[in-house]
Design brief:
Blueprint lengths: L4 H31 L6 H22 L12 H35 L3 H32 L7 E3 L4 E3 L5 H41 L21 E9 L7 H9 L4 H11 L2 E3 L8 E8 L6 E9 L18 H45 L6 H10 L3 H12 L1 H44 L5 H5 L3 H19 L1
Antiparallel strand pairs: 1-2, 3-4, 3-6, 5-6
Helix pairs in contact: 1-2, 1-9, 1-10, 2-3, 2-4, 2-10, 3-4, 3-5, 5-8, 8-9, 8-10
GO molecular function, one term: G protein-coupled receptor activity
Organism: Paraphaeosphaeria minitans
Membrane topology: Multi-pass membrane protein
Length: about 475
């Protein structure tokens, strides 16, 4: 299909405008992740890694139709560069979204902590960038050293990509793998969402039944993945002892205590023990500390690690003890966690469908009817495909909204402190300048008394007369 001048301009404006939005979103992700440590959650680390691929994709989409070869200006090297970037990094974004879904599944169903997720990142990098990279490198080799004289990379209507001579490879090595990954991602989020909303229903029933013990907890897997899933309980044992002197014995004999005071003294003299609740955890680490006999203080700390697996939800049981406020708070936390998960999952579903449905329909239509390409579908593809970085930034902001507000407050405080310091510096410099100017003016304007001139010492007048005589002789001689 040969685009008219107006259609080409519309596609160029669409691609470059959406690319600028995505670049701004990717720069926001990279800058906040590097600047503030509280953004560095495991799922945000994956979004951070994906942002570099998004920016390289936007480099290709910013080139737009300028790389399409023509008879007057065959920019084939630029065309090949654009096609390889699109094949490599546009596909990688979907693989990163799938890696985020894997992180959610491992945290929610397997109880993975931050260290375990950190060990998986090298495999995510290899999977997300290495897989599409193999296909892209194969295209380069076949483009220059293949047996077929036709080029693998060529015009693809709205930019350079896989050429029309091998159009079936667009479906086989790009759109088909992408939709398989999208299907797997959707299955993970649907399974996790069902489990979350099932627990939410249990929380709601738990808040209505006062005598029921509730055995599950509900957390948002997007906001709790930076925790180590460690619960700490402490047992403190306090022992007090008294030494009774002879004076105390005499005073006790003379003034026997009442029954109430004796009972309270007895309770103080006996060891007071705060026993921990039952620990239904598997791995228990004990740290014992005991002071000298003078203080009589003992402290034992139990650090209990939650066992992985779905059976771990039994270990999260806690007694309700007829506390309506506790039940109401727990139900509200469950609703907030469910809503937070739904919001992020909805954004990911929306991003996948908005980006890939119009472009897939467009390529299928071109594959079926090669002679009649629709400008509307091409324009829709030009609008949605460069938006991957923008959607990733929306997901990033939704998962770190409290951190974004904190970063904004830190930035405003920093700017305010700098402005105040600069104002104080200017005021201090102006004060010093005014003081020095006043001193100089005061020195120049100080009047010399007439009596001081008249009463000069004799030596000064003698020196003045000598200098005058010498000057007269020098002028005469």
């Amino acid at each position: 299909m040969v685009l008219s001048a107006k259609e080409t301009l519309a596609i160029q404006v669409s691609e470059r405008t959406m690319s600028v939005l995505s670049i701004l979103g990717s720069l926001f992700i990279i800058s906040t992740f590097l600047r503030w440590h509280y953004f560095r959650k495991p799922i945000n680390r994956l979004v951070f890694y994906a942002s570099f691929g998004n920016m390289l994709t936007n480099v290709a989409t910013l080139i737009s139709t300028s790389a399409l070869p023509s008879q007057s200006a065959p920019f084939y090297t630029l065309c090949e560069f654009q096609g390889i970037l699109i094949q490599w990094f546009m596909m990688a974004d979907t693989l990163w979204v799938f890696s985020m879904a894997l992180n959610v599944m491992l945290v929610f169903f397997r109880g993975y902590d931050s260290r375990q997720l950190l060990r998986l990142e090298k495999w995510y990098l290899l999977f997300s960038y290495g897989g599409p990279g193999v296909i892209a490198i194969a295209y380069i080799i076949m483009n220059h050293h293949g047996p077929n004289t036709k080029k693998m990379i060529g015009p693809a209507t709205i930019w350079c990509w896989v050429g029309k001579d091998v159009e079936w490879m667009r479906i086989a090595f790009f759109y088909a793998p992408i939709w398989v990954i999208i299907g797997a991602t959707m299955c993970i989020y649907i399974a996790t969402g069902r489990e979350i909303f099932k627990k939410r229903a249990e929380l709601r029933s738990f808040s209505k039944i006062p005598d029921q013990e509730f055995g599950t907890t509900l957390t948002n897997p997007f906001t709790t993945m930076d925790l180590g899933n460690i619960k700490v309980e402490t047992e403190m044992k306090v022992e007090t002892s008294y030494k009774t002197t002879s004076i105390d014995q005499d005073s006790l004999a003379a003034y026997p205590p009442s029954r109430g005071s004796f009972s309270s003294t007895k309770e103080l003299s006996e060891p007071a023990v705060i026993s921990p609740p039952s620990l239904p955890f598997d791995n228990i680490k004990t740290c014992h500390h005991e002071d000298g006999p003078r203080t009589g203080y003992k402290a034992t700390a139990f650090s209990t690690c939650r066992a992985p697996g779905r059976g771990a939800k039994r270990s999260q049981s806690f007694p309700t003890e007829h506390n309506p406020n506790r039940r109401r708070t727990t139900a509200m936390e469950g609703n907030a966690a469910a809503w937070g998960y739904f919001k992020v999952a909805f954004l990911m579903f929306a991003a996948l469908f908005i980006v890939w449905v119009p472009s897939t329909v467009n390529r299928l239509q071109q594959f079926i009817d090669k002679e009649h390409s629709l400008f509307g579908l091409n324009l829709a593809s030009a609008l949605v495909l460069p938006l991957q970085g923008f959607w990733n930034s929306m997901i990033y902001i939704s998962t770190t909204w409290p951190e974004c507000k904190r970063a904004l407050a830190d930035t405003l405080d920093s700017l305010s402190s700098r402005r105040t310091a600069r104002r104080n510096q200017h005021a201090y410099a102006k004060q010093n300048l005014d003081a020095s100017t006043a001193n100089r003016v005061q020195g120049f304007e100080t009047p010399i008394p007439l009596g001081a001139v008249r009463t000069r010492p004799e030596s000064q007048r003698h020196l003045q007369s000598m200098s005058s005589a010498e000057s007269v002789r020098a002028a005469a001689g």
